[in-house]
Amino acid sequence: MIQPPVRGAQTAYLIDASIYIFRAWFSVPDSMRGENAQPVNAVYGFCKFLTEFVERSQADYIAIAFDESLTSSFRNEIYPQYKMNRELPPKELADQFVWCKRLVEAAGLYCMAHDRYEADDLIATAALRMREQGYRIGVVSGDKDLAQVLRGNDFWWDFAKNIQLDSSMVVDKFGVGPQAIHDYLGLCGDAVDNIPGVPGIGPKTASALLQNFGSIEELYQKLEEVKYLKVRGAKTLAAKLREHKDQAFLSKQLATVEYQAPVQVTPDLLRRKAAEVQGLQQIGQIMGGRGDGLFERLINSAQRSLAQ
Predict the structure, then answer these.
(1) Model-level pTM?
(2) Partners of 39 in the beta sheet?
(3) CB count, 10 Å around CB of 143?
(4) CA–CA separation, 26 and 37 (whole Å)
(5) Which among 33, 32, 21 has a CA at the least distance from the CA of 65?
(6) pLDDT tens digits for 36-80?
(7) How far out from the chain centre does Cα 198 lie?
């Protein structure tokens, strides 16, 4: 069970928009059409998520990060194959990403995006800066890799599945703590992001190695000790690690979130603002009136937050 915030501390919620937009795209029928008969299923599903989130969380400090670096991330410069296994969103979905971003801004919520830094980097940077201001961090995402930004009393929350992890639960999930997640992915890789890792090293072996050595750097300094570990194939692990050393360090670099992304983050920026009624109405027109009262709920929740 996630512990409540320490007395006097407020929670800053940092939301990974793409996860919930993609979920809406696949779960809401694309027969849902707006004006000019264009699909609006992703906008509708994301709006539903956003409305339910602000009502349930009663959050006062929110930032929502969008990915605008699908092919232009600085990681692509380091490793051109990074995420190249993913197809770009079709135009029907790409258009809805734009509308979702407008929806966030019209709802009085802070929007973060950059053409060279991914949503993960923006969230990590926001987490660091808000934590420095005394805020507890709630990372709202379905991507467990973002658990690496957790510290202290922070938590990760997949809102759609209602799953929460704090720092100790991250250890239960990966066998390593948040600060070693990038080492873990450096060893076992990440097929979703096309991060290679070290061939022949899976999640269990990666966890066992890091439980003993703490980090990839320490592991390679003590490579001769690996053969004495009580893990499957221990006698051949050192040779694999030695052969793929450069790949291991590259993979860790790719998996490490950036904490100094060029994005403005202050409590004033993250504090909920009044919803822009006209902006929401424009989104409603695009959706062909398929709001089902969601926009009104967003307006009302913003008014309640400002009144507190």
Answers:
(1) 0.93
(2) 33
(3) 17
(4) 18
(5) 21
(6) 889 999 999 999 999 999 999 999 999 999 998 888 899 999 999
(7) 24
